[in-house]
Write a structure and sequence with these properties.
Layout: H1 2-21, H2 25-59, H3 72-81, H4 87-100, H5 104-109, H6 112-119, H7 125-142, H8 151-154, H9 162-173, H10 183-191, H11 200-210, H12 216-229
Helix pairs in contact: 2-12, 3-9, 6-7, 10-12
Length: about 260
């Protein structure tokens, strides 16, 4: 009797183990439904991004970098100067700056006080002068006097982080290695619900995941123009905004939905 009971018990345990390894039909169907909802949500998101890009391109068909420059080196210097400073102010400073120091070699040979005197009105001029001088010396000594054309090499230059490198690569060389994230792009990306991150690097990563690569360069220019003209920081002009129906920001000044 004991042997028979033990045999039945073992058989029941084997059946339980076998059935545990098989997926239940009901659970499988539920999982499939969840996946379908996820795919549908992604499709809607992609449609929204496509419409956002279409409207930005229509509103700012000739959007370009506002910094005046004659070559990649001048753009690099102007971008460094634009930190915590308006592009308009930088454009006032650079003509005389580049007249006195027309090349990376000229900047490399110039004294820090001489550079500082020319860029004083852009603010933080001590640090900016050090960055420009250091970048010039490295470009002359390691890159043959020419601004490097890769992200990795640009990031080795003093004063150059991803934002500056993306500006130079996109504007001077037409290379889309990332998305420029300045204060306007950061602010508008939050308002449009494109990211929840605050760190510019993480914001860039989020944007690179949802914006097609062939739009990365134009997208930044268009967002910057939109941030200056319509979606301003303190009181966005929502009633005039071509993106208004795609935006659910909490600080909207007017809404149609």
């Amino acid at each position: 009797m004991a042997k028979k009971a033990a045999k039945k018990s073992a058989q029941r345990a084997g059946k339980s183990a076998a059935s545990a390894g098989k997926p239940r039909k009901k659970s499988a169907a539920k999982g499939k439904g969840a996946s379908a909802k996820k795919d549908a949500g992604l499709e809607i998101a992609l449609e929204r991004i496509a419409e956002l890009l279409r409207r930005l391109a229509a509103a700012y068909p000739n959007a370009d970098c506002a910094l005046h420059r004659g070559n990649a080196w001048e753009l690099l210097v102007a971008t460094i100067l634009s930190a915590q400073c308006t592009d308009a102010r930088v454009n006032m400073v650079t003509p005389e700056l580049f007249r006195k120091f027309p090349s990376p070699a000229a900047f490399a040979q110039a004294s820090l006080p001489a550079i500082e005197e020319e860029i004083r009105s852009t603010g933080f001029y001590h640090n900016k002068a050090k960055s420009i001088s250091g970048a010039a010396k490295k470009i002359v000594s390691e890159f043959g006097g020419k601004v490097p054309e890769t992200m990795e090499e640009l990031l080795t230059l003093p004063g150059v982080a991803r934002k500056t490198a993306n500006v130079v690569l996109g504007v001077a060389f037409g290379k889309a290695e990332g998305v420029v994230v300045d204060t306007h792009v950061l602010r508008l990306s939050h308002r449009l619900g494109l990211t929840r991150a605050d760190d510019p690097k993480k914001v860039e990563e989020d944007l690179m995941r949802i914006i097609p690569k062939d739009h990365w360069i134009a997208f930044s220019h268009e967002m910057i123009h939109h941030g200056r003209q319509i979606c301003v920081a303190r009181k966005p002009r929502c009633i005039d905004c071509p993106l208004e129906t795609l935006c659910n920001a909490a600080d909207k000044t007017w809404t149609s939905h």
